[in-house]
Design goal:
Helices cover 26% and strands 23% of the residues. It is of the alpha+beta class.
Length: 259
């Protein structure tokens, strides 16, 4: 993770980030109908790459530090960075996080959602719903003068109260023309701690919430992170801009953007 100083983006740069973010949201919307039993994660990857190119954008994950595919597909116990594979066929009851980052004019739109494949189990449904609520609660903390720790505390307090755990090994991050930069945004922590938020800061919040332990293992491919107890994990992610008034979610459609 890059530890350089936090860069505040200009309104022009935020406009560029908004364009990339909205394309990322549209990509997830485009892939959503494909996510059903019998589809391979490679099918999702290849359609994402085709669609991204057709819209004049590039897939930031492809080749990033050697990552071999255009999106991340993390199924069931996979926490993050799952590599699409022709042999990985989605089955009824699976959950899958699809993480996309198209670049538009060099700016990154980074977002992910966890989807149900067919009919989920009761615990899978609850985990996914709690994880999405964690992201919403975290976004509500973002405003000038708040602290990074307020974000993590909101996530940790809610997730643990629901009987789930928060992954420590992977965090949100600053993003602009650089894929991963300052600040780091942990999804756990204490209120009043960490960097103070200022207008022009742009970063992701992407809580990974586990059914069991928060601990993870990284597989031999060097990318795929799985829960240590192999129980389920879910994740949702948005890219956000701190505004003078509060927060703007950059990775959703214009009619859905809130300030």
């Amino acid at each position: 993770m890059n530890t350089e100083a936090i860069v505040l983006l200009s309104s022009r740069e935020v406009d560029k980030m908004r364009a990339a973010g909205q394309l990322a949201a549209q990509l997830l919307d485009h892939l959503a109908p494909m996510i059903k039993p019998g589809v391979s994660t490679l099918d999702l990857n290849d359609e994402a790459e085709r669609w991204t190119q057709a819209h004049g954008a590039k897939s930031a994950p492809l080749g990033y530090h050697g990552f071999p595919k255009s999106i991340c597909t993390s199924v069931n116990e996979v926490v993050c960075h799952g590599i699409p594979n022709a042999k990985q066929i989605l089955r009824d009851g699976d959950i899958i996080n699809v993480d996309v980052t198209p670049t538009v004019d060099g700016y990154h739109g980074d977002t992910s959602r966890t989807f149900f494949v067919g009919e989920p189990s009761a615990i899978a449904r609850r985990l996914v719903e709690v994880t999405e609520q964690c992201l919403e609660l975290a976004i509500a903390e973002v405003k000038p003068g708040a602290r990074i720790g307020d974000i993590g505390a909101a996530i940790q307090d809610y997730a643990e109260a629901q009987g789930f755990s928060v992954v420590r090994d992977f965090v949100g991050h600053g993003v602009s023309r650089i894929f991963h930069t300052a600040p780091q945004v942990p999804h756990y922590g204490r209120r009043g701690r960490g960097k103070k938020l200022r207008p022009g800061m742009v970063f992701t919040i992407e809580p990974m919430i586990n059914e069991g332990t928060w601990e993870v293992d990284v597989l031999e491919d060097g990318w795929t992170a799985v829960t240590k107890d192999r129980k389920l994990s879910a994740q949702f992610e948005h890219t956000l801009a701190v505004t003078e008034e509060g927060v703007e979610i950059l990775t959703q459609h214009p009619e859905l953007v809130v300030a």
